[in-house]
User: Which sequence fits this backbone?
């Protein structure tokens, strides 16, 4: 339980630090960080899948479902509270995840990736032709309220949304850390390594992957709803394959070891994108490609692996090995 | 008395290759059986069928009077059957501790907990006992990928015995291990399960190992059982010498 207490304490400190940072950093960075955290949540879902050995190229499906659920609730039912809208985004992801998970849990590797991609493109195609949902133009959303608080100035609104997004992000990150360190989290890791042994230990790999898929779907829905509130606009591009590809890019950039690394990677990526588009307006995609190439070449385990690399070499294990020669296997 | 394991007319073919042909065997509780035979004789196929890895084309597998034919490995495990593999099936990216902790956690039905940390006080005590029995303490913090083959074999067996199976099937426990380490390795395994009521079936190519540890031997050839009985009798059987041991006994 010490690990859980430590994680929760770190979450409280992170919340306070982010709240303070929101005051200090310029408004444009607040906007960048808000969007980065929203996308980071979707990438965190991919990380949960990656720990079990799967990569989804279709998280845009859930990102889009969360965004449209929040958008339609706001436009059709007049719900304007950010917490309610994000909860609806999560529920949309959850329902879709529960429906799709059993269909995909038996697939691995490129088959799983391609099927998720195909699903997202089906959603994209349907939304493009559904004019009641705005068709290819999408829908505009107005600024949300926060537990009854309606920010008057746009700067206050940005900060309030940043604060709210940070809170949701920290809670999700802490829950994921606890999950990754739990028996089930370790079992996912084990399933990635050796499915046969997992089955022979009495656990179901299909079930493990299914649960991971639903977790990723919920995180996708939450990220989608937050992005919709941050951008003030939703359109079918939320489900387009390049959007899903961006989440995979983020997951590769962060690696699957550290939860914090996912959000650091998300901010880094948004910054690289912002600066590249400012200084190389015609070739910024190339700059982004070079950035990814450098990461894959020099940090194949992602940013999260830096923590492992920086650990002092030759550190003694927690318990020293027994000295009795009879304790040693032949 | 009902046999612990009874196979009735097992048949299995892979295309034109007959891997099991009318295999009918009854194994009594507490026995230690050695399974011998040349490569492709059907020993591993027999283990794979009993543990649910393969479905037989025909025939039945009964455990304690219950039909377990075609059940998935995890269901067969719940009924008390465990196995180790010729190539150890362990989690190479995890530490030895983590491998065994997972096995213990699933045993306690905590495998689906998203809250319980993998390491707990109760499991740590059980882990320590397991490490001691298999003489694995010096390696506990090491990643499996960094361990020698013999130690991996022991981890594989240790993971299989965590739930004190009624029936333990060991597929070539000493293969890939240096000659001088074979007996010490088997000693560790057999001592680790000493005092339990586990019935053991092990596949082995070294007839000295079979002679020392088995109290009954099944000799396989071309998917059939060609001899069944006490080690001395089976190893001196003419057909066994011709097709299996090459006159080594």
Assistant:
């Amino acid at each position: 339980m010490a690990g859980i207490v430590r994680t929760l304490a770190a979450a409280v400190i992170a919340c306070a630090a982010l709240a303070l940072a929101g005051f200090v950093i310029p408004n444009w960075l607040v906007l960048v960080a808000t969007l980065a955290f929203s996308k980071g949540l979707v990438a965190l879902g991919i990380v949960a899948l990656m720990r079990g050995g799967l990569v989804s190229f279709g998280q845009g499906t859930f990102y889009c479902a969360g965004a449209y659920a929040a958008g339609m609730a706001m436009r059709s039912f007049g719900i304007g509270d950010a917490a309610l809208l994000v909860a609806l985004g999560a529920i949309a992801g959850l329902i879709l995840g529960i429906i799709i998970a059993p269909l995909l849990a038996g697939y691995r590797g490129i088959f799983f990736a391609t099927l998720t991609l195909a699903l997202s493109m089906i959603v994209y195609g349907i939304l493009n032709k559904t004019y009641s949902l705005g068709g290819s133009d999408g829908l505009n959303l107005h600024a949300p309220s926060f537990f009854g608080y309606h920010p008057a100035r746009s700067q206050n609104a940005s900060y309030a949304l940043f604060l709210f997004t940070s809170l949701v992000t920290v809670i999700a990150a802490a829950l994921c850390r606890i999950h990754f360190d739990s028996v089930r989290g370790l079992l996912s890791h084990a399933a990635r390594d050796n499915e046969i042994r997992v089955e022979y230990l009495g656990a179901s790999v299909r079930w493990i992957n299914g649960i991971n898929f639903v977790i990723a779907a919920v995180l996708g829905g939450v990220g989608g709803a937050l992005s919709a509130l941050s951008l003030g606009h939703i359109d079918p591009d939320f489900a387009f394959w390049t959007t899903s590809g961006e989440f995979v890019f983020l997951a590769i950039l962060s690696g699957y070891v550290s939860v914090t690394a996912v959000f650091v990677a998300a901010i880094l990526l948004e910054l690289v994108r912002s600066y590249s588009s400012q200084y190389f307006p015609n070739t910024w995609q190339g700059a982004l490609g070079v950035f990814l190439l450098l990461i894959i070449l020099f940090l194949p385990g992602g940013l999260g692996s830096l923590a492992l690399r920086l650990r002092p070499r030759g550190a003694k294990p927690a318990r020293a090995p027994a000295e009795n020669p009879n304790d040693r296997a032949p | 008395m009902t046999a612990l394991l009874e196979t009735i007319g097992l048949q299995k073919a892979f295309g034109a290759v007959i891997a099991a042909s009318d295999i009918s065997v009854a194994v009594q509780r507490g026995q230690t059986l050695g399974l011998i035979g040349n490569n492709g004789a059907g020993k591993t196929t027999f283990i794979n069928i009993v543990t649910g890895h393969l479905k037989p084309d025909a025939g039945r597998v009964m455990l304690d009077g219950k039909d377990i034919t075609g059940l998935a490995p995890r269901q067969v495990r719940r009924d008390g059957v465990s196995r180790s593999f010729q190539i150890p099936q362990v989690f190479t990216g995890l530490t030895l501790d983590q491998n065994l902790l997972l096995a213990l956690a699933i045993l306690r039905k905590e495998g689906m907990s998203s809250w319980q940390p993998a390491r707990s006080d109760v499991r740590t005590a059980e882990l320590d006992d397991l490490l001691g029995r298999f003489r694995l303490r010096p390696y506990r913090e090491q990643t499996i990928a960094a361990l020698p083959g013999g130690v991996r074999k022991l981890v594989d067996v240790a993971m299989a015995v965590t739930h004190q199976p009624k029936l333990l099937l060991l597929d070539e426990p000493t293969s890939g291990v240096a000659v001088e380490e074979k007996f010490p390795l088997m000693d560790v395994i057999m001592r680790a399960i000493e005092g339990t009521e586990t019935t053991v079936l092990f596949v082995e190519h070294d007839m000295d190992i079979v002679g020392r540890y088995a109290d009954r031997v099944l000799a396989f050839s071309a998917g059939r059982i060609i001899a069944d009985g006490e080690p001395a009798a089976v190893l001196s059987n003419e057909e066994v010498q011709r097709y299996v041991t090459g006159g080594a006994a």
